[in-house]
């Protein structure tokens, strides 16, 4: 079964072909990384899948439903969740309240005027915070949390909608190196446990090669290689176009602890 | 109708468009670089007009020629540029980092100060300007007599556009302006003297506003009330044209000028409504304006602001006790004051809900207060409805109006929406003012009487309290219900709210309608208390009063808006009878408030 199917999508900005006929598919439980040098079109591809931009051609299918032209909120209701490069959370709430709000949002009925907002989902919110290792911070305002913790809370907010497909734009950006591995391990555990497909972009090659099941390499808008980390690592085109010496070293390092 | 007639209409529209373009170009340049929306920009145009009517007659007496006339106009504009530079140095420089709401409020304080300054210097009478030598005659085209000055003005627009384009493209100053409009941080990082750039751009903007005002005087006399209509139109033009885009401002002012000229033929009383509808249509298709570039959603205006806290039982008891005491133990004057405070309180509370929970800063909330009042008054006086029905119709009408406004424009965020709420309020004011047959124009509607059982002040106060207090409490319940909480969540992060599947725009429209209906309830209650309604009720100063109440009282304090209402009402009662200069004092008070606590207020808001 496929949770996300992208067929031949393209996007052009003026004279720049940002994404040129990219196709991919993602299965439940799978961790698929999209990598590529700056300007390769990763962010544009993400925005085409996420619904921030419409593609010029091609199609996007989420959980078997045509989603190419659907707005962001409608995609969310099909089971797509997302985290952002710079964490998007509800800063004026405590961590617990923020997750409760996310649960309310995910359960619908945003126009209920007189019911109590906080309370009905409290236990569930605590469970989600525990799942991302943030149960200690339940009563802390999100605005005062350390950034690595904010990223975990953001993950809990995304999980509140019980997504079957999670898009993660640079999940470890801005985190200390020691925190990165722990977060990626957590994400992989969630993907396996919840049967959730995870599509992520990442600059940190250690994270990519240690945690992705498959890797898609983009250069100048097109996919030049795709496959298991081992295969991608061995692909001469990738070595030349993208990894270079530094990337290759990282790839070898990751294999050592993998 | 004749071709000549259509031509005359088009010429008149395009001539107005030229002056509007000059003013709007200044506003859009200043916004592009300084990211500040200058409420006082229309006041600059007004000052330009006043300086021109003072400077031109002696100059023309000395040498009556067109070149001297133009020299006089440019000198007037330079005087305004100097005023602009002074304002930037003394005021704006200190508030670039405070939230946008405070910036707008500070520049509105400036509007008040300039209004009183102009009144003191030039008196209350309109002052007509001299004709431009050589352009005082009419030109016969297609059998119509077209004023030569209008043709001249039409030429001024493209000429100024060309000169500005040259300035922006070919000078270092212009290139810096363009660079700063695209990426302010980068320009700062490159070591450009930002302080100088900002002062220069602000002076240039003021110059353009002054020139627009000065060149209008042969057509329109200088008058003390011209500032707000000008700024409202300039807001519409800059938003429709695309913020920061000078050619966009030109295109939009031609569009708006022609619409007004021809709209007046089709809908003489509601031309402005037509303008508003076209604006809404343009913005629905192109939210970034005709030639604007899409911007990331504006945040920062109110980011991190805590929402209104949940209701507290002791305060309710206190409020009820106070109302009962006033109703039974005091005199009619206090009962009337208490009734009006209830009105202001619900208007301010509903505005506070919009700002703090929905993240919508409205500079036109009084439009809904006024709409409720007019609906109730008209139905009661003209249609003979009983008070009870008219009181119910007020909030319904205001809520429907707010729903339509929100549906058209709620997708615009932040500062854009704030500017459009102001334009909307100005338009409702103009409709109330101009549609004399229906609204009674300036005199308003008199003889709005309550039903027999509520006709004494004590009974009416109790009725007002019975309507307003439960409404306020209900609104407070909404704040801690899913709707209120999720609105606030979407205010904190729209991308997150959308990613969770929330219909964010629809929720904002609903919030707008709810706040509008509550303000309309206040307006309807007010109509029967005052016994009359008039256009000042929905004028922009009334909207700003509501904002000032919120800020005075503090948005978070439970009793904040109420305290603010009491404070402002008291201030006005105390100051207005003593002096004609109340605008000056109120304006200075607002300026001091923002200058004294730029970080204090902002910091207090952030900490919470």
Structure commentary:
The complex is a heterodimer of chains A (258) and B (608). Chain A has two domains: 1-79 and 164-258, 3-Layer(aba) Sandwich (Rossmann fold), CATH 3.40.50.300; 90-162, no CATH class. Chain A contains nine helices and ten strands. Chain A has helices at 42-50, 72-77, 95-106, 122-131, 147-159, 177-194, 205-211, 229-234, 236-257; strands at 4-13, 16-26, 31-35, 57-62, 65-66, 80-83, 165-169, 197-201, 214-219, 222-227. Chain A has a six-stranded mixed β-sheet, sandwiched between helices. A four-stranded antiparallel β-sheet of chain A has the order 2-1-4-5, covered by helices on one side. In chain A, helix 6 links the parallel strand 7 and strand 8 (197-201). Chain A starts with a strand and ends with a helix. The model of chain A has no long low-confidence stretch (mean pLDDT 90). Chain B is an all-alpha fold. Chain B has two domains: 21-225, no CATH class; 313-539, no CATH class. Chain B is built from 25 helices and four strands. Chain B has helices at 3-34, 41-62, 66-90, 100-122, 148-170, 172-182, 184-189, 194-216, 227-241, 246-266, 271-285, 313-329, 332-358, 366-381, 387-409, 414-434, 436-439, 457-479, 482-492, 494-499, 504-530, 540-553, 560-575, 582-596, 598-607; strands at 138-141, 144-147, 445-446, 532-533. Chain B has a two-stranded antiparallel sheet. A two-stranded antiparallel sheet of chain B has the order 3-4. The A-B interface holds A 50, 71-74, 76-77, 81-82, 84, 88-93, 97-98, 101-102, 104-106, 108-118, 143, 154, 157-158, 160-161 and B 303-307, 474, 477-478, 480-486, 488-489, 491-493, 495-504, 507, 510.
